[in-house]
Amino acid sequence: MTQPTETTGRMKRSPDHEDEVLDVRGHRDPDRNRLTPVVQLPPKTALTVIDALAGLVRAAHRQEGERPAPPGEPKRAQVFEEGDVFMLEPPFPGFFADRYLMDFYDTAARDICSRMHLHTGLRFVRMMTGPDTTIRVSSLSPITIRPATGPFAPLASFADDLPGTPDGARRERHNVIVPPNSWVDMQIPRGVSHQFNAVGPHAVIDSVHPEESIETLREGMSGYRMMAQTIFLAKDRSPAATCADTGTPETNPPR
């Protein structure tokens, strides 16, 4: 049984399940992600920005370990598959959006990739990389690359097979590589598949969830948890080799 991904109505079978999995064979994206190249920075400048933002996330996690959030209050330091997260700006009555920072894990160092997934509400994501670090952005649908807002090297894009599909099933995966020392914005419509994997130690996401509180009410969740708005398209995570390619000839030899 597959789960509908229409843009109205509830999307989750079990609202409080934080690891709900949708059969990828039946999923069809209702729209496309849109990616906008923003700016490329000198390596030292990019590293300064990344270190400052990642430092906020790490400090929040240290504080959560020392003084855990009281029961019933949103836990602002959380853990996602792609990295550690700090809810920088929580929602409040009359303002249904929140904003979080993510300190990416280095998939090469951990030898594991995050899973393809979708959300029950739309997202706006700014991805930032520092020296010697890239982010591979993936989707089951082609990613629309909008014109750059200023001078920006062309982005590498390519397609491959989604790993970890059920036996006999093949799904094409579309990929764009965010280069080092770059800022790239991504608009993610509700219900559209996406996957982020950083290769290298310096990567941060600054993300806004404009429907987060509404999602909690619409999906019938018993509490406010960011992971509760996520639906995965694979049961297990795959090895780092499945998300390390960058689409360049030296990383994708002829087959």
UniProtKB/TrEMBL annotation:
Region of interest: Disordered: 1-36
Bias kind Basic and acidic residues: ranges: 22-34
Highest taxon in the source lineage: Bacteria
UniProt protein name: Uncharacterized protein
